[in-house]
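assembly run, all chains below
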Amino acid sequence: MTWQKLLRHETILALLTVLALVVLASQSDKFFTLDNLLNQGRLMTEVGLIAVIMTFVIITGGIDLSVGSILGLVAVLLGVFWKNMGLPLPVAIGLGLMVGTLAGLINGLIITRFRVPPLIATLGTLALYRGIAEGISEARSVRGYPDWFFVLGQGQFWGVPVQLWILGVVTLVAAIILGTTVWGRGVYAVGHNETAARFSGLQADRIKLAIYAASGFAAALAAVIFVSRVSTTRSDMGTGIELDAITAVVLGGTSIFGGRGTIIGTILGLILIQALKNGLSLAGIKSDGTIVLIGAVLILTILLSNLFHRNGNR
Amino acid sequence: MTTDHAPAFVAKRTGLVRFISTYGQEVVIAGAIIALFVLVSMVSPRFLSANNLNTIISGNAYIAVAAIGMSMIIITGHIDVSVGALIGVLATISGTLATAGYPVWIAWTLPILIGVGINAIVGALVAYGRIPSIVVTLGMLSILRGGLVSITGGAWINDLPPDFHLAQQRLLDIPIPIWFMVVLTVGAFLWMRHTAFGRSLFAIGGNIEAARASGIPVERRVVQVFMIHGAFAGLATVLFATQLRIIQSTVPPNLELTIITAAVIGGVSILGGTGTVIGSTLAAILFSAIGSAMIFINVSPYWLRAVIGVLILITVLIDMARRVREQRSAKR
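ok done. output:
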């Protein structure tokens, strides 16, 4: 009984992460320097923000494939609002965040009002939002943002990258909401058995609507940070980031069928992926080789986890 | 067959109503294709030129072929997001074999066998490893994409032997890709409809416990359907790799989403259990016709994806509305 508890998915993952960190540190003395670790945190933030909210989405039994496209759309609109329409940059950022939230809300409405399966609904909006971004930008990029804007993506606060603070706050708030509030328990209930959740008085649709809107907001926030980090706006930004985020969430032990998962698992998943990417590249392996390893780790972790939990097939 | 998932009330209807209720989606898409051709050809008659029709239909036939296998996967209640990466890998293998001096028939057929082999592993992980197919194929997507680029560096394969280009050849004056598309679509349609094996896919996707109870070896079927899907991916690769003078050894961007979208717009329910491959092939043709039409009526091609996105959403919403109506009439 106790050893079964010890073999929880998060424990397996934590051990795997520590093992990876030790092995990687022995391969290169640059790996365990503070500079390197903080820089890796910087690179992790955009996927991280999306993955934290994606954890909620997947716990409800849903999925959001459109986040990468929302990121691209908001990035393009940021440039349009600021450069073409001449709005002050803070206003442009505010509008961008609103558009992202609205895009997420539209996903939620299609899913809850019309009962379209989330995979299909967000597959449609993946094409739609990216299509709008491409149509508006026509492959032109926007540059020349004011210096203060780069603080978000390139600056530091108390020696830690600014966006890592943002990721930290979002993660903490998300973990508290999911782990300790009644609303958070409702999220699990909806994912575990939606009909039962409805009958026990939970407003399942409202919970889902809020989560998809939050997912859009997270993607928009990631877009602002992304633009600030790379100093430019392009319509193909964030392509495929949904798969990275889903990989981190699933690696973190969240069941793709819903009803089970934790924020701490997702963060462990993120750290493991980023550590592998960075450590292997420092050890001289090309980043494409690392992607192979991440795919293999994803499959093997779930396989191991399934072997230890034969009876619980959720 | 007792595994037929179709609701009993359908059988009581008259022929025409039954036809429309079973093939509604296919009829809608065929209508949309005809409407598109009529409207665009009024604006620009050159849209109907033999040359342009050939580009529309045969240029994207590989998507229709891959969508056949994807439809089977989705009907069985699974998904495969790695198929685009698989086609990229197989195309590179095919081109490498051809330039290395192997006979072209080996360069055409070996990738099909490799596709079957890789998907046998995927299917086994799904069926016996009990890992959800989206997780396995997400992992496989990383493995294939990363493996391809790290081995080839994304280089282009030139100097392909002239007889390698199967997709540019014609049989009875009809381009080979169209033969592939039509024969495979009709063959797969009849096979899925009239064989016990084909029917069992619908049964598994419709209600897996009922399928198991009626004696279908569910695990083995899932592995087999993934292998068949791998074969279709290999056949799609033959068309994809041989249609241009060069092969770019990277993964074609968003190819898996285009293939999944063709299957879904074609009427394959993502919930499993229903759909036909005729619909997915028609949807693949519709996409490619829309892309071409936008050029002819002078809409910036940058808006193509937005149009396809709207199209997906409209199709899905109509499908959901129809489903709700059918459920109501079933209750009556």
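Strands of chain B lie at 156-157, 170-171, 174-175, 247-248.

Chain B has 13 helices and four strands.

not gonna interpret more than that til we talk
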